[in-house]
Amino acid sequence: MHRTKIKVTEDALDANTTIAQANRADFDRDRVRVVNLMSAPGAGKTRLLEAALPGLGPRVGVLEGDVQGSIDADRLAALHIPVTQLNTDNGFGGECHLDANMVRTALPDLPLAEIDLLVVENVGNLVCPAEFRIGEDAKAMVCSVTEGEDKPLKYPLMFRTCELVVVNKLDLLDHLDFDLDKFFHNLDAVNPDAERMLVSARTGEGVDAFAAWLTAIAEREGAAEPAATG
Amino acid sequence: MHELSLAGAIHETVTRHAEGRPVRSVQMRIGRLRQVVPDSLEFYFGIVARDTPVEGAALELELVDALLRCGVCDSEWDPAPPPAEVEDDLLLPPMFRCPACEAGGGEVVRGEEFEVESIVVEDLAPAETRNG
């Protein structure tokens, strides 16, 4: 049997990137900015959104990524904002992240004409979501003080890819050995440019800053411009 | 743990380029900053390739050492990937920090590659030639 070597020279994630660009074009067409919000499970993404989204200036919608169920989506729907659930469970255990194609399948269900900002709450995971672009304008992550100050060094791919790191559960700080200075020192090592915020979604401390950041993303340059695609 | 997702992405790329021909091997370049565990990637690649023309293909990985360049003083260094377990001192020697001037956030010169370089396929007899 004759064999042939075929030159490929292609990033294995290119296919995902291509779909992410198509998503981005669709978001641009409706002038919707997109935030990809990531964290470990239980860091408090949903709680943070519950605290920050009511009363937000821009019209906001949420795409809720979970392996199974609609617990988070139900919580956010109570805020009377459009929430779309995207389950990654395909019968094979469920994907541990959202990729561009999964988001693409949810596009028809998203009320893009009625919102200015889409927050995509990714599946809780500090590894895979960092690898897959979905067509977002900005990546942000929530890291809670219960997770330990070593996390930027252990998951540098995630911490390097985000422009904002929200440190959550600040109200627990007194009960923990978590050292904020060490955490920021570690974050500085992997991503000194990351914007950082200290919040407690539970008490509301610092939530205004996160809401202001979301508002700024919604108003980010390009938001008011027509889509470039023909 | 991201190796399953990555194996799926490799399989998709390989399948597209193989155009139906059985694949015998896949040559890849992977930067060390991707934090890929080779054995794990090969294991999952074997699973996602099952019952496809890629089944049984050898995954041949060339690991590319990382190189960072400091944006402040232009020094270049290899940031060894962080160890899996941090025990006594949480303040490890910061590998992403410039060893010369201590600035953080060096530019990645190499080490983030995740590239399918080539594949080796079996040629089909003319009658079974690909349809696309």
Overview of the structural elements:
The complex is a heterodimer of chains A (230) and B (132). Chain A is of the alpha/beta class and 230 residues long. Chain A has a seven-stranded parallel beta sheet, with helices on both faces. Chain A is globular and about 70 Å long. Chain A starts with a strand and ends in a 12-residue tail after the last helix. With 132 residues, chain B is α+β, with helices and mostly antiparallel strands. In chain B, 20% of the residues lie in helices and 26% in strands. Chain B has two helices and six strands. In chain B, strands 2-1-6 form a three-stranded mixed beta sheet, with helices on one face. In chain B, α1 crosses α2. The longest helix of chain B has 16 residues. Chain B is elongated. The two termini of chain B are 35 Å apart. β1 of chain A pairs antiparallel with β6 of chain B.
List the helices and strands and how they pair.
The complex is a heterodimer of chains A (230) and B (132).
Chain A: E1 3-11, H1 14-29, E2 33-39, H2 45-52, E3 60-66, H3 71-77, E4 83-87, H4 100-106, E5 117-121, E6 138-144, H5 151-154, H6 156-161, E7 164-168, H7 180-190, E8 195-198, H8 207-218
Parallel strand pairs in A: 2-5, 2-6, 3-4, 3-5, 6-7, 7-8
Helix pairs in contact in A: 1-4
Chain B: H1 3-18, E1 23-31, H2 38-48, E2 58-64, E3 67-69, E4 76-77, E5 107-110, E6 114-122
Parallel strand pairs in B: 1-2
Antiparallel strand pairs in B: 1-6, 3-4, 3-5
